[in-house]
Fold:
Amino acid sequence: MSPEFVSTRSRLDKLGVKPGAKVAIVGVDDPDFLKELRQRTSDITRGRPRGQCDLVFLSADTRTDLRRINQVKSWIEPNGAVWVVRPKGGRSELRDTDVIQAGLDAGLVDNKIASFSDTHGAMRLVYRLKDRPR
Structure:
């Protein structure tokens, strides 16, 4: 990729983590990410949050892991998102289409893909506008 196409936006900006955001982490074990996150917000929960949150970062390595999308979607605000973080390329049995289908099965649609790290990618799943809980 030529230098003029390299983004200068931070990982958290690409992932839509706003200052003070309520974030839940499920299975994501990336010390650099957690350090960056703590610099942006102090409202971080490992596992189920007490109330609704803005973003859930869900680690998925297998199709079975994708079943958790249905559970964690209830944790997000109506305009929140679930980021499914998975190994890139040949490192994973999961394909983009697996994540997309699991999202659809849970009533969510994919609307963004981002590089999470050198080894992992992330796909954002959200409620369709017409399907957002009241």
About this structure: Residues 10 and 36 are 10 Å apart (CA to CA).
